[in-house]
Amino acid sequence: MRLQLGYNDVHPFSKVNIQDRASVQKLLETVLDPLEPFFSPDKARVNCPGATAVRFDQTASEVEGFARPLWGLAFLLAGNGEYRGTEWWIRGIKSGTDPDHPEYWGYPGDNDQRMVEMCPIGYALADAPTLWNSLSLNERENVEKWLGNSINEKKYNIPFTRCSLQVLTSDSMPNTNWLWFRVFANLGLKKNGGKFSQERLESDIQHLDTFYRGNGWSNDGPEGIHQMDYYSSSFAIQVLQLIYAKLNGDDDPQRAQEFKKRAQMIALDLVHYYDDEGRAIPYGRSLTYRFAVVSFWGAMAYADVELPAPLTWGMVKGIVLRHLRWWQTQHAMWTSSGTLSLGYSYPNMYLTENYNSPGSPYWACLAFICLAVPESHPFWTSKEEFPGDAFPKIKALKQPGHIMSYLGGHCMLLSSGQACSYPMKGTHAKYGGFAYSSAYAYSVPPGLFSLEQYALASQLGLSDDGGEYWKTRRTNEYAAIEYREDRPVLVSVWRPFSDVKIKTILIPPVEETPNWHLRAHRIEAGREVMTADGSFAIRNVNSENGRYLDLYDETKCEGTSPKIIGNYDVKTPSGWAEGKSGAFAVSTGAVGIKALESWDGRQANLVNADPNSNLVESRTVIPTLQHTVRQSETAWYVTGVYAKPTGPKEMYLDGWEKTPRVPSWLEAELK
């Protein structure tokens, strides 16, 4: 069955009325069905549309296309559901693990993507018995060799001596969340009486425990790397800990209980990442996995975790179902063949990492873990609820180094100190930004020339060549949650250039001015630098004819102030305003920025960001403050950033003139 979407067609995914377990089962079918034409003849590979290269070989890419949807199918089968295409995956496992078959997957080499895909395959074998039971004795031996022998030979790259197995030299397997994938390869075999390595299983679990940092949070790697994004929760670590607790709890009860305790602790932090509209805060890498960001909540139900107060199953159910409904409104995320595209709300290669093949987005099927939860569980029987006032509107999260806010109509996190350990594309935007919002997604650079291409949403950029190339915060010399007047603030010290030192202080909103947060920067310049301080990015499309926003029109409650000119034209007066007057844009809500320091000097304008830089909106504009710091000068900025995404359009600018109070301690500290 081939799905072909035409000009006005809506994907079947968006037509499902999500209310209960049966409707989520139907939703999964709309994700799996379009894959049918892209299976290889003997079903071992899925070549998803989008002939894009990736850092691993084409066969591994097609194994990824086969394995990742298996998350969803396995959850469905584990919950006693049925799917017409189950036989495709059974046949594919037989063909892919047969070394004499033309569609054989091949043993994994060093740092091979095949090891990642062993995780959903291992889980599926463990919790969906029909898969293993459909294999002959010879086919089971093939699975044991491919799934067990090959990955158990791999070593990770730091010494580890807590057990008899000692690893010292090889770097053939990343020392990250990847170790969980071997755990599940062995677990899949263990649950079926196959040949597996208990020694590897135990040593990997023990080593993964060294990533734990406290308060429920695990880092994605050993000491020296501070990276706590959705991999620490829904994409990998928390979800896999909970699945492990469910599947292996009888054999490892103490560790299973520990994993459940961690989930209870982190749940009270993670609840702050999802808003009442169903949106999650886009943050970090791998966001082409889309709705996988809510899999943690279904895993809590799957593992029979007792919810910590004040969480209720109605709240948990609401987080998951509202999130899926929000994705139903993102009609551009599909290819014309009905498969998930590479991107977020629309196809976007600028967002993707070098490990994203056309099959990568199907890690999103982790979200369907709720289908493995019995219909009688309170996750399904409870009425949907909102977290409401049960949780604080401002909360500092020690481990990820975030300050969370749910004031002003959106979930927002202020961030300092996180970074990726390797040179990932757009890493400064994915981790180094100051603020991340559920309503206004972050932007990545589609090019490296001028502010339009850098798209510095919620970032401070510095240029030492007159504005052609810009550097932003990526790593920090210091980053910590500190307290001023008994309120949390984020302090970081960073260097965009070796002789330019910046101290940044991030201050969350307050009840009196809920749509504003403050950023303060103290810049010690060893060379002359231009600066550009960007607000959130917002849709740059007017509602009348679909063209760019015009000057603000009070009768339409839409437009910008000042006028959008573009940074290639920096001399046109109509495109600039005094920094204290600021710049704003109104379309899907309102965003803006003002200079609140006591001295004059910064200027405000609208950066017309290059198309496809933002994750959610393909055309955006970024209100920005600009200035030049001379060599050997020390400058200090206090920036007010405005965001109001909800309410009647007549009220979008309701708080624009009421700027936040600049704390007395702040100016003194900057000086």
Automatic annotation (TrEMBL):
Signal peptide: none
DUF2264 domain sequence ranges: 20-385, 392-668
Highest taxon in the source lineage: Eukaryota
Stored Pfam families: DUF2264, DUF2264_C
InterPro entries: DUF2264_C, DUF2264_N, UCP014753
Protein name listed in UniProt: DUF2264 domain protein
Organism expressing this protein natively: Hapsidospora chrysogenum (strain ATCC 11550 / CBS 779.69 / DSM 880 / IAM 14645 / JCM 23072 / IMI 49137) (Acremonium chrysogenum)
